Amino acid sequence: MNKISSVLLLIIGSVFLSGCASTVNTPIKTIKDQKEGFHKTIEETAKNMHALEDYQSLSFGQMKVYKPEAFVRLDSIYSVKQEYLDNNDLRGLKRSGIDDLIPGYRAEALQEIHEVQYEIEHIYQTSTSDSIEIHNAFFLFDYKDSLILVSPFYNFKIDKKYKTLFYAYQFDYHFVTNRDLHISEAEWEFLRFFKSKQFELIGNQELSPFMNHTMKIMEAAKKASTVDFRNISKILVINHFTDLGKKIAIESFGQLMVLEENETVIGYELKVEWVDEGLNALKKSTTFTFSPYLEVESISTVIL
Asked: N or C: which end of the chain has fewer CB within 10 A?
């Protein structure tokens, strides 16, 4: 079961209160209080795990609750009682005999209280002078709210210069311009496309290289002010020639061709005609072959 109920919190609270000599002025813990306590413990634990690194909390997932069947049955009977109360049907509630059944259900649940557990996903970053590392881990607590297990899920490193772009990626922010706008549908689909590949690569050593590539594609998209692959691929080509340090002049870009196999996109191809101004002004044609995620897979050049 993933939902926490006030019934569960009430029963667990009663267990601890019953062990106290006096319950006068004892504050009642709410679900919000419990979550905040978990978050504090998680952050302190993660910070201690990376004591020599610069830890920064990024986000928490929804709290999942794992509870035995006795609690599920108790939740159900309380739900039925609440329906009577919501309908102001006190007579029907009395005839139902629900109030007579609840003590037995509570006693049964108390016998299994030790099986109650809570789980929260935490995403955080650590950083060095030139890179940041993104961590995803699950933190498991027992019914006493004590941390019992930390389960790392994935982690990857990206260049520190991509930090702002990563936040846009992680939290679905608008990123193709510097304007304070809501994310567009095209940007959202773009991020979903790359995130699906990210999750495929969890546990694979290719995850970090792919995430750095994704940041480069986002950087190119921002330069092109669009997530259209036709424009982004041109930026990638220009970046390639710039990195070569040659003095060239691009004369024309061909169309970005989609490569398909069995109606599935397996890549893209783009031809570029250019002049090598440092070598007798030779005219050349270069064909770039990209993966479905615009990773450069091959480059071939011929003299025209």
From this structure: C
**118-167: per-residue pLDDT in tens?**
999 999 999 988 999 999 999 999 999 999 999 999 999 999 999 999 99
CA angle in degrees (0–180, nearest 5) for 162-163-169: 85
Nearest alpha-carbon partner for 198 in 114, 102, 123? 123
Check if the beta carbon of residue 122 is closer than 8 Å to that of residue 46: yes
For CA atoms 256, 262, 265, 266, the dihedral sign is: negative
pTM of the model: 0.84
Nearest to 221 by CA among 212, 210, 234: 234
Say which DSSP state 30 is in. Answer: P
CA 207 – CA 195 distance, rounded (Å): 11
Asked whether the beta carbons of 84 and 92 are under 8 A apart, the reply is yes
- Name residues whose C-beta falls within 8 Å of residue 119's C-beta, 6 or more positions apart in sequence: 63, 64, 65, 66, 138, 139, 140, 141
3-state secondary structure of 266: strand
Q: What is the CA radius of gyration of the chain?
A: 29
**C-alpha triplet 194, 53, 133: angle, nearest 5°:** 10
Instruction: Give the H/E segment covering residue 257.
Output: strand 257-261
Q: Which two tokens stand for residue 61?
A: 């997932």
CA distance 304 to 301: 10
